């Protein structure tokens, strides 16, 4: 029986991705987003393997059955001790790894699946949060890191 590998898998892009430049901690940003957008983001840790390292990213999730929408807020950086799967001299490596490597300057991302939102109004509300420097829609059509955005 011959085995074949899939070289290219196209994922469905029915989501909006917002990049947020912010110096707040993740839980403080989630709290402020909950207040200004009238949502309920809940914390959980997202674990993924990137370049043979197991990384944990801070993530918050909101599910609205009424509007058929899922909203994810997640950090772009994984700090601290990162465990390697290959044997090496050190058990853990102190480093930072980015979930979306091509957008290293963005601190947080907000992924919105489903629903219909007014982009300008949504971006305005996020920009009005204290300590948020800027936010904007991000396009990842050609980047390979978009495959890291499959959470479920």
User: What's the domain count?
Assistant: 1
Distance, first to last CA: 31 Å
Classify the helix fraction into a percent range: 10-25%
Major sheet: size, sense and barrel closure?
8 strands, antiparallel
Average pLDDT works out at 80
Indicate the structural class.
Answer: mainly beta
What is the rounded Rg? Answer: 17 Å
Number of helices: 2
Q: How many extended strands?
A: 10
Percent strand: 35-45%
The best one-word shape is: globular
Q: Which ranges are low-confidence, i.e. pLDDT below 50, for 5 or more consecutive residues?
A: none
Secondary-structure element pattern, one letter each: EHEEEEEEEEHE
Tag the structure with descriptive keywords:
mainly beta; 8-stranded antiparallel beta sheet; two-stranded antiparallel sheet; 39% strand
Describe the structure.
- With 152 residues, this protein is mainly β.
- The chain has one domain.
- Helices cover 14% and strands 39% of the residues.
- It contains two helices and ten strands.
- Strands 1, 2, 3, 4, 6, 7, 9 and 10 form an eight-stranded antiparallel beta sheet that branches. It has a two-stranded antiparallel sheet with strand order 5-8.
- A hairpin with a 7-residue loop joins strand 6 (81-84) and strand 7 (92-94).
- The protein is globular and about 40 Å long.
- The mean pLDDT is 80.
Quick description:
It is built from 2 helices and 10 strands.
Fold blueprint:
Layout lengths: L14 E8 L3 H12 L4 E9 L2 E12 L4 E7 L1 E2 L2 E4 L7 E3 L2 E2 L9 E7 L4 H9 L4 E6 L15
Antiparallel strand pairs: 1-9, 1-10, 2-3, 3-4, 3-6, 4-9, 5-8, 6-7
């Amino acid at each position: 029986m011959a085995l074949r590998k899939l070289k290219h898998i196209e994922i469905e892009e029915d989501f909006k991705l917002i990049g947020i430049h912010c110096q707040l901690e993740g839980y403080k940003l989630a709290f402020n987003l909950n207040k200004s957008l009238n949502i309920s983001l809940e914390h959980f840790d997202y674990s993924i393997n990137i370049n043979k390292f197991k990384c944990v990213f801070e993530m918050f999730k909101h599910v609205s059955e009424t509007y058929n929408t899922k909203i994810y807020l997640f950090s772009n950086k994984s700090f601290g001790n990162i465990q390697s799967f290959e044997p090496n001299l050190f058990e853990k490596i102190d480093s930072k790894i980015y979930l979306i490597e091509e957008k290293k300057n963005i601190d947080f991302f907000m992924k919105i699946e489903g629903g219909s939102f007014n982009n300008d109004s949504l971006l305005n509300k996020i920009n009005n949060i204290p300590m948020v420097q800027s936010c904007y829609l991000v396009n990842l059509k050609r980047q390979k890191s978009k495959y890291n955005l499959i959470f479920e």
